[in-house]
Fold these 3 entries.
Entry 1:
Amino acid sequence: MIVNPELFVIPNKDNFILYLPLENRAALQVTPGVLSILKNASSITKENIQDGLLKKLVDKKVLVDENYKVKEFGKKPSTYLPSRGVFLPTTDCNLGCIYCYASSGENSINMPFGVAKSGIDFLVKNAKETGEKSIGVSFHGGGEPFMNYPLIFATVEYSKEIAKANKLKVNFSVVTNGVLNENQLNFLADNRFRLNISLDGPEDIQDHQRPLRNGKSSFEYVMKTVKFMEENKQNYGIRSTITNFNLNRLPEMVDFFKENTTIKDVHFEPVFECGRCEKTETKEPNSKEFLEKILQAKDYALTKGIGIYYSGGRFDSTTERFCGAAGSNFILTPYGNITTCLEVSSPSDPRASIFHIGNKVNGGFEINNDKLELLRSRKVGNISHCTDCFSKYNCAGDCLAKVLARGSLFDTSNNTRCEINQGVLLYEINKKLEEAKK
């Protein structure tokens, strides 16, 4: 027998956890003595696997035979045929968030309908070619999407029309700051949008971190949207940004969401210093402190029936690529560029040289296949610093844009989130082991 090549041995207090991310995220808590068995795996044969421990190690695929093949994630696609796309209607915004990665509202560039129309036509053409039964149309920033509501309205109407003509379904979603009027809210409900609302919690936190452009309170406007979603039983989620200002108030934020919503999960994400952070001197939390606070908040949230999601510590999935920025996303900017990363929409962003893979040309799009191939090669198996990390298949090298901002796309050694990612994942593994005992 041999030890599974993708086994990770994680010190855990006085014992160890054997973690197999590629075997359905199997985890075993063992004593130090079990490591001696693993060191002598070559002396173990199928004939002497009789006692409970050895059998368990084999059943869990900790020990495997010499012909064992490591799980593969599938071949990378040879073509770029997305049937789901994100449209960035504008760089304008009605808020002045202190940490805005895009510094939105400082310039106002609106997407022309001709650009959006070409994008929808592209998605429909690809869906027909690949045999998909639906297309996905999402709106996001750059700015607040609804600052260019006429573009959203026209794009939705055209999407429904062309999808119907091609016997396709169409699904709509939007990420919004929640400062919406009644007409816009009814439009969202009528078209069955999935909403993700940016809301940082209680009034003083929200108004400090996400004020209106004029500096006044945004809280009542966003809560009006939340109330509409609740009363009309609409599908929505909430994302909160964590800075040093609200780091010590995560349990209070959990209480706020419990008291004011029916959502079962909330997304807490630490701010990344970029964009407007420099002007406002907004700092990202220290990694150790954020990890400590989010784990405490996770425990507290469980007592309230709420889950806390953080993008870098994903236990429920294993992957070799962090997200669609690695060569699969179709995100159309107001300038007519295709980017694969939501955080890199402006052509003036230095990272655009990596993430901007195409441009609108006449009625279609021209794709730079060299850039596409580079991004597709950004998988965790090609990142040497991740080789021995037990969270490699859960965070998959982490956020491409954040890693690139601090060096190279393929070098995670300067990534300040690694400690957080590992700590959150270890927390989730321990929770699974505790549940298994019950």
Entry 2:
Amino acid sequence: MEVITHRKHAVNITETERMLSVLGGAILTLTAFRKKSIGGLVLTLAGADLVRRGITGHSYICELLGIRTARLGQGAETTSVPYELGIRVDQSITINRPRAEVYRFWRDLTNLPRFMDHVKSVRLIGDNRSHWVVKGPTRRFVEWDAVIHNEIENELIAWRTLPGSEVDHAGSVWFKDALGGRGTEVKIELQYNPPAGIVGAVLARFWGEEPTQQIEADLRNLKQILESAETPTAEGHPTGPVTPHEETLSGGRQTW
């Protein structure tokens, strides 16, 4: 798990908040500086931090809580999580199956609950959009609508959540031929802004609900399904395991 910190661009409060922070911080610092006490020193430091907050436009408290009042800026129309906020997760696995087969299986989003333990259901709602129901921390279910906004057949599926989602996130899954003809390398890149921000992410990890752990386990499940004795149909969906006593013949399945 990587906490995203782009300090150069980490303006997360509005211009009005910045001006009020500078003004309030200056008044608090000047007032508290005259007090010859520990309390005065604490207030002086607090005022100085308010001035810093106003000058830089960056609030550490907002960052910890995953709150942003500043405008999203360039790319807001296609971005669910501003690039200077949130948590980033990168995971990959090699699956000993052809790339087109792995891609087709994933592209049918209704297959995702089969290997993603926390996903209860994915319902297609048209125009590359889908509705998700997912089990979150403390066993609470959260829901969101997502859209596939970029797609390259047999290579890339990229998605983002739509406005109003309970958990804002965006990501992509890449499909590449593995080296040495060992099947397909599947790589997930995910960025999300958890409820309660970084604090929420740390608490979720403590309770075993952190996305890095989830995705790693999900990819292992996917590998097991696709590399098992399941045989894909013409549409690319497994039909079920083939036992050692079954053989598919041109005229149908023969059981010995």
Entry 3:
Amino acid sequence: MRREAEELVVREARAGELDEVAALTEHSFEEYWPLVPPAFAEAAQRDLADVRGRLGSGELLVAELGGRLVGTVTFLPDGGGYPAPGWPPSWCAVRLLAVDPACRGLGIGRRLTAECLDRARRRGAAAVGLHTAPFMASARHIYESLGLERVPALDIETPGAPPALTYRLNF
């Protein structure tokens, strides 16, 4: 069966899948490590691998295609728990969107992001926010196509790290 004919299912991750989700997330970010300072890459890799640590404050979603995990994202219902300064609790947040590089271009990142936006709307959130890096052009395209707008005033500039570009969608 061709991938295009298979149904993409977006759902919450199961307890037995957490190591697979961590490996998928780490693999999807590998191409970016040469673009960032080594110390930042090491810290980011630890964060990516800490799937269990995100479960306390967020909902770990996965995309499954043909019985295989091909994408993941963390949805945070309370933006005040997002690891960035100044985000109000009335915001929800999207964190660590990752798609298997072999499956990019199939709409997986868009579906995962749209699911987060839908969850935020159902909760009555004032807005959804997220951060991305300047070199993540495909992710930025997805966010913009779904109506998220850049909010440079909330960008994060940290020495030794790429800028964290802020995107927000108000409801």
